[in-house]
Write a structure and sequence with these properties.
Elements (H helix, E strand, L loop, with lengths): L9 E4 L8 E4 L6 H22 L3 H13 L2 H20 L6 E5 L6 E2 L1 H6 L19 H6 L4 E2 L1 H12 L3 E5 L7 H10 L6 E3 L10 H14 L3 E7 L2 H4 L6 E4 L9
Parallel strand pairs: 3-6, 3-8, 6-7, 8-9
Antiparallel strand pairs: 1-2, 4-5
């Protein structure tokens, strides 16, 4: 709070995150000198308000890196996986053919090295240069060097120990099947099925592809106890008792 002696107190209200600051001035008797001071203060407030409302790409990139590197991302993934595990523990022995469905990218395997090389932008095509960037996502995936997301790997292993069938359903193209399965296997995953996009297929939403695949599992007699992914579209469309969304601070897919 500022006091000017003649004008009433000048307050800058702290606004909620994402909203501009608000300057409030209460006037009693105002001289020309204090009007000038008031004009200067109001201009500074407006300038700061406008600045805070403009997204800053560098700061956003730094915040993403800090979230991932600090361990908070891993902790959030572990929290989600723990809830999924609890549901498996409750239900796995109550159904004849229990199953669990997992997305791959940013759910089972991490592509963060490729995204980091791109300044956390998403480039699907092109070669991958991790040192200088850019790194095309498909080229990176073909290298089969993605690391397992620890919380998901633990969950898959636990599911299999309960007799739960594990299926991966991913929007990766079929040309990456060999590299994808090699990568999953190298990171310690075991599974009952890996479903990738059909050759030449295109969908407006991942849900248009993944929900029918879960329905096929139901038609085979499976009860999908959990479906887990990093996008809402991984999970939409039904045919799973419970859905669990992992955090993804980098990108959104319809």
């Amino acid at each position: 709070m500022l006091s000017n002696g003649l004008a009433g107190p000048v307050r800058e209200r702290v606004a909620p995150l994402g909203e501009p600051a608000v300057c409030v001035v209460r006037l009693r008797t105002v001289s020309a000198r204090w009007l000038l001071a008031l004009a200067f203060f109001s201009g500074a407030c407006a300038s700061r308000s406008q600045s805070s409302a403009v997204p800053n790409l560098f700061e956003t990139q730094q915040r993403i890196a800090a979230y991932i590197d600090s361990g908070r991302y891993a902790a959030d993934c572990a929290s989600v996986a723990a809830r999924a595990r609890a549901h498996l523990d409750r239900r796995a022995r109550e159904v004849p053919k229990p199953a669990a469905v997992f997305d791959i990218d940013e759910t089972s395997l991490s592509n963060w090295p490729a995204y980091r090389a791109n300044g956390w932008a998403r480039f699907t095509a092109g070669e991958c240069d991790l040192e200088k960037g850019p790194c095309g996502l498909r080229a990176w995936q073909a290298m089969a060097q993605s690391k397992a997301i620890p919380a998901t790997l633990d969950l898959v292993r636990h599911a299999r120990s309960l007799g739960v069938a594990v299926f991966f359903i991913s929007g990766r193209p079929p040309s990456l099947r060999e590299a994808t399965e090699r990568n999953l296997r190298a990171e310690g995953y075991e599974w009952d099925g890996v479903v990738l996009l059909p050759e030449g297929a295109a969908f407006k939403s991942a849900a248009d592809f993944k929900a029918p695949e879960r329905r096929r599992l139901a038609e085979q007699g499976y009860t999908v106890l959990i479906s887990i992914g990093d996008q809402e579209s991984d999970l939409a469309g039904g045919f799973a008792e419970r859905t669990f969304k992992l955090p993804n601070p980098v990108y959104f897919l319809p």
